[in-house]
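Data availability (excerpt). The following record was deposited with the supplementary files.
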Amino acid sequence: MKKTLENAAADLEKSFGSARSEFRGDTSLTISPDNIIEAAQKLKKDHKFEILASLTAVDYHPALEPRFHIVYQFNSISKNMRLQVRVPLDGNEPEMPSLSGVYANAEWYEREVFDMFGVKFSGNPDMRRILMPYDWEGHPLRKDYPLGYEEVQFTFNYEDIDKRKPRPKD
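Predicted structure:
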C-alpha cells in the first residue's frame, strides 16, 4: 500500500511538478490550478483513486499570494489509500477549473466552496449558491467577512444591555 501511494505521488511530481509533503503519515501534493484536471484524471485512471471524498478551501487572509488553498481528498477503496491535493489560488476573486467532468460529486462540493468562500469553478454546470439564500451578500467563511457582535449580558451590566435590546412592537 505505501509503495503504491509513493508511486502515485512520484508520478504526479514528475508529470506536473507538484510539491510533496508528509505529515503524520499522510501525503499531500501541491499542484497548480492549470494542472488539476489532468492530475485528477491521472489519479482516477492510472492509480485507481475512485472517490473524491471531500473538497474544501482554506483562507489565509490577509495574505494575497496565495490567499486560498483548495483542498481535495482523493480515496482509493481498492488499494486502501488516501491522498490530499492542494491547489493555491491568489487574490480576492479566485477562479479555477471544475472537476465535475472527472468526479460527478465535485459539482456539489464546488458549489459549497463557491457559496462559503467565493471561489468560482469554471466549467461547473450549476455554479449557484447551495447553502446561503440566493440574495445573500458576501461569503461567510472568508476571513474578511464582517462578524456580528452582541455584548454578553451579566449581572453587572444587565440594565444597560436590557435598555438597548430590540423589542417586538406591541
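Summary of structural features: The chain has a mean pLDDT of 91.
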